[in-house]
Description:
By secondary structure, this protein is α+β, with helices and mostly antiparallel strands. The chain is built from 13 helices and 16 strands.
Amino acid sequence: MTQFTEIYPKSPQPNLMSNMELLLELAPVAILTANQVGQIIFVNAKIEEMFGYQRSELLGQTIEKLLPQNFHQIHKQHRTHYIKQPQARPMGNNLDLVAQRKDGSIFSVEVALSFIQTDQEILVQAVVVDITARKQAKEILEQHVQARTREIERRRRVTDTLRDLLTLLNANDSLPEVLNYIVIQATVLFDAQASAVYQLLENKSILVLQASHGLSAKEINVAQMPFKMNGYLTPSAHPILIIGKRKSAKQRQQTPLVKGYQATLAVPLLIKDGLYGHLVFYYTNDRPFSSEELNLAHTFGNQAALAIENARLRAQVEQAAVTAERNRLARDLHDSVTQTLFSASVIAEVLPRLWYRNQAEGERRLEELRQLTRDALAEMRTLLLELRPLTLTEVALGDLLKQLTEAIMGRIRVPIELNIQGACALRPDIQVALYRIAQEALNNVAKHAVATEIKVTLHCQIHQVKLSVSDNGAGFDLKYVRHDSLGLNIMRERAEKIGATLNLRTKPEKGTEITVIWQKTIME
């Protein structure tokens, strides 16, 4: 901004003074001059136009007349200081001030000061510029920058949330955990005051609350809402439904608005089987939704639906696995314990008559009865381990193998030599894996080997555990065996999961030996 630094001549000529005043009067900017005590001695037409005063109303008044009342005192101090030390404020540094018009309105101005000294007095000349439009433009720009910054941050949060949802697809979280995560993230991501997931019941007429975040018990009138095929939550007609304030009470009652909220955004959750339900956002104030927000809600709903479907499928798989395990236990119970107890009951029934006829044969059958009941007890203990998996980590591995070999011996009536060297203190996952490998190997021997000798060896050292199961049975040719047959694939997977190596040695009619070696690492 132009700075007026010219000093009036010590002996000004009248014509020169008139020309200068005329120049200032016609200037395209607002200019005023004040003396050293702050009295206004000159204003041009632009000042009158800017502040709404007549010239006669300003001349002789202090400069503070053009400022709001609360700035008068501090401005007087600054004015006095400037008269005494004008050089303290560097030239070219303009002041941003707040001014007041005659009608009392406040507006922003920028002032450039010039120090003028004559023989008679000290004058200060001010060039005043209304910067209201500039301020407003700056504020608008700042608002745009802030909005853009918020949008960038929101996009980052969206990316992070969608990435986390993708991670959730591969996680093993239960359905309640997945739903809870969805409503929490949805509330934050969409700047909602609350959110909830409703599931559509099988009768297709009621939506029931499954999970919520931000809704208190007092705020929820009911935990369910009606669903109409031709109503406000039909996914085919309204993929995303926006509900705001309603004009009539009747219409308001037909909307899924929770008490205390004025706007709702409902997003359908579509899974493979059809409509699972809706993800609903609640807002305390009625508000519009941009197309970008609706697209984002649609994307988030799709990802949430995938996570829900995966959680439901995992639950179904787990249930199927439980059912399959129960069926296996039932078969084992029938094939081993039931038959053993049946044989024992037959012997026990004929034993009294046999004892009187042939005591030696009776003693033999009595020993057989004792062995049968012992075998049945061992088999039952093994089956109980299957029903209580935690026991596999609470009992020493050597004791587990002893119980397992006794159960197998009772089933196939073949002696099993168990050799345990050292004590194994293993992590639960390592112990369970080794036990399951031994169990699978012995089951294969019982089913296929036709062996007369079986050996199980467990060698525990400080940095290594070696487990082997061998037999002198039929063996087989590896070239003609499928990769996943005879439980080999299961055993390999268990070994790889704990970082162990599994070796198989076998030949037709030469028996089979399976060896697992687990090396303890530095981090263990």
